[in-house]
Amino acid sequence: MTGRRAGLAGALLMIVLLAVNLRPAIAAVGPLLTEISDAFRLSGTAAGALTTLPLAFFGSYGLLAAFLRRPPRSETLLVCAMALLVAGLLLRLPGGVAALFAGSLVAGIAISIGNIAVPAIIKRDHPSRITTVTAIYTVAVTAGASLSSGLAVPVEDWFGASWRLPLGLLAIPAALAGLLWLSRSRRAARTARSAPPAAPRRG
Predict the structure, then answer these.
(1) Which residue in 3, 125, 164, 166 has the fewest CB atoms around it within 10 Å?
(2) Dist CA 44 CA 66 (whole Å)
(3) What is the extent of the structural domain holding 173?
């Protein structure tokens, strides 16, 4: 029983670590938007687009998945989501306006993948606890958004840095989550390869 509880706790921790990364790329921009707009001389419309562009792509993977003959495993999707998220977060830092918006677009696509893959894993791995685990996942998503929004400006002030530092630091937990899910994805792939083939159905 202790081993099962430890396994459940570990699985929940991985879901939480993933979930807290699914909103900061968007939520942390709001408190820094004035500074970003001044740095790039963005118009009011462009500044608003910077925060709404990722939201516009929240359902992008869902539209693509409908046309895939064989969607990737959920673990693989989460690794890809975190890799894209790290790329999007870092892409916004050094370049100009085009890189800023491209990074936001990539981050939105990454979040779209995570939004679909995590609930699928919850349903598959925790069928008797779907409501509870989904509630934990939702709280973690909300907490990640709140913390990133609330800490963006204080982190900037503490280090005497620009808006790039708090946005860049978001790549660290995303990379950590990606590495942990990469390990799990490899274990899942090995298990799938070693499993005996399913018996053919008789007509």
Answers:
(1) 3
(2) 36
(3) 14-190
- Tell me the DSSP string of 25-46: HHHTHHHHHHHHHHHHT--HHH
Q: What is the CATH number of the domain that holds 52?
A: 1.20.1250.20
Length of the chain: 203
| Model confidence, pTM | 0.87
- The answer to whether residue 197 is domain-embedded is no
- pLDDT, one tens digit per residue, over 29-63 is 999 999 999 999 999 888 888 888 888 776 666 66
Nearest-angstrom CA–CA distance, 46 and 98: 11
Judge whether 65 lies within some domain: yes
Instruction: Please report whether residue 202 resides in a domain.
Output: no
| Tokens describing residue 42 | 């963005």
